[in-house]
Amino acid sequence: MKHARIRHQGVIHSVTVEEDNAVRLADGRLLAEDAVEWLPPATGSMFALGLNYADHAAELSFKAPTEPLAFIKSPGTYTGHNQVTWRPDNVAYMHYECELVAVIGKPARNVKREDALAYLAGYTVCNDYAIRDYLENYYRPNLRVKNRDATTPVGPWIVDASDVADPSRLKLRTWVNGELKQEGTTADMIFDIPYLIEYFSSFMTLQPGDMIATGTPEGLADVVPGDEVVVEVEGVGRLVNRIISEGEFFARKNEA
Amino acid sequence: MRPALDHVATGTLFGVALNYRGLLESRLQEFQQAPYQKPPVKPVLFIKTPNTRNGHGQPVVYPQGVERLQPGPALGVVIGRSASRVRAEDAMAHVAGYVIVNEFSLPEESYYRPAVKAKCRDGFCPLGPEFVPAADVQDPHALTLKLFVNGQLRQENTTANLVRGIPQLIEEISEFMTLHEGDVLITGTPEGRVDVQPGDVVEVEITGLGRLANTVVAE
């Protein structure tokens, strides 16, 4: 089953997602995909992996890490399916990153690899945009690069873990304005999901709603205002986002 | 009556690294190493996840298999009104008040490594003993911080030595992300970090904000 959070007529609802991405409210009403505002399906901390695909690490001329390189994102950066993200004025390079996200379902502490998947609620997709100009340090991406307002689309929904037979062989793809730009497979992850759950839970308690964004394969390209960016993980979801300018973003924000 | 800390400081815990002049100066040589070869340009920020939240009088767990644990005395700024693209001269109007933070951490091998393992362990961020409204603090940039271990003074500094003061931090951070009501900005920990052991009573005192006490216990 697919679970989402939406806003409709000013009220936030937990919904299930049916055919054609229509959403079913708790009272039984069915609403079309484009009739609702999609919200991030989880709002915990996000543990985002850097350089977790060997080809991407090579693309950036770095050696693959020997221990997970993780940084944390806060809920302020998340946005939902069909929402907008802003590109700052006067930057040279802003890129998307299609990622499979594992969503924690129950508190996880000292979990062994073989039990790890039982701690998941399910999976979602994120687009972990970065503005390369602000990257002072690859090993510790600053919040200016990775925690900007509305710069991490997440969603559209969470697919139950039991509905994904094998998270380690899913195709990831990104299209910009309909053109396929990024293609990879979760089989190429350096540290897979069971490893990451064992790793994080060995020193801290992962909480329900926390997310592990598992990194992105090669194939990054610059995006500009007006671009429509679609990231998809096979069997999990297809997340649509549009880039607008800094001026438009803050004008909208001030109106809201 | 003052609002309870648990009712106001409910948001994200944002930390600022390298925000005391003495600490920054002690690391300058390291920043000249390859591949970066220059000191950080913008504030170096990190997040303490919600599982790190802890309170006055509560134990802090010394993790098994860890060689060193260090407290991090810091002034916490509690945001009272969401701040997006706020100029320094208007920034203080977004501050609800202050709280003492003890930002526990394992020593980091390198500035170039992410700090999750060092900073995000359960209970590694005591806050307290209470929320102090902004109106009750005359000048947040002239406060003395003291760290006591088992009653002995081990570290002392002043918020006059912040590299970036509160208005500048709020301006530079809110340029790209909103600081929301209830978020806590941990303004930095001074140089000269101290190791603590299981059994130690660790206290942080800041002028006018009280004294935050925690006991270190073995895992």
TrEMBL record, chain A:
One of its GO terms (molecular function) is 5-oxopent-3-ene-1,2,5-tricarboxylate decarboxylase activity. InterPro entries: Fumarylacetoacetase-like_C (IPR011234), Fumarylacetoacetase_C_sf (IPR036663), HPA_isomer/decarb_C (IPR012684). It comes from the Bacteria. Residues 46-243 form the Fumarylacetoacetase-like C-terminal domain. The keyword Nucleotide-binding does not apply. One of its GO terms (biological process) is 4-hydroxyphenylacetate catabolic process. SUPFAM superfamilies: FAH. Keywords: Isomerase, Metal-binding. Gene3D superfamilies: Fumarylacetoacetase-like, C-terminal domain. Pfam families: FAA_hydrolase (PF01557). PANTHER family: 4-HYDROXYPHENYLACETATE CATABOLISM PROTEIN, ACYLPYRUVASE. This is 4-hydroxyphenylacetate degradation bifunctional isomerase/decarboxylase HpaG2 subunit.
Automatic annotation (TrEMBL), chain B:
Pfam families: FAA_hydrolase (PF01557). GO terms for molecular function: 5-carboxymethyl-2-hydroxymuconate delta-isomerase activity; 5-oxopent-3-ene-1,2,5-tricarboxylate decarboxylase activity; metal ion binding. This is 4-hydroxyphenylacetate degradation bifunctional isomerase/decarboxylase HpaG1 subunit. The keyword Phosphoprotein does not apply. NCBIfam families: HpaG-N-term (TIGR02305). The gene is hpaG1. PANTHER family: 4-HYDROXYPHENYLACETATE CATABOLISM PROTEIN, ACYLPYRUVASE. SUPFAM superfamilies: FAH. The keyword Metal-binding applies. Keywords: Isomerase, Metal-binding. Residues 13-217 form the Fumarylacetoacetase-like C-terminal domain.
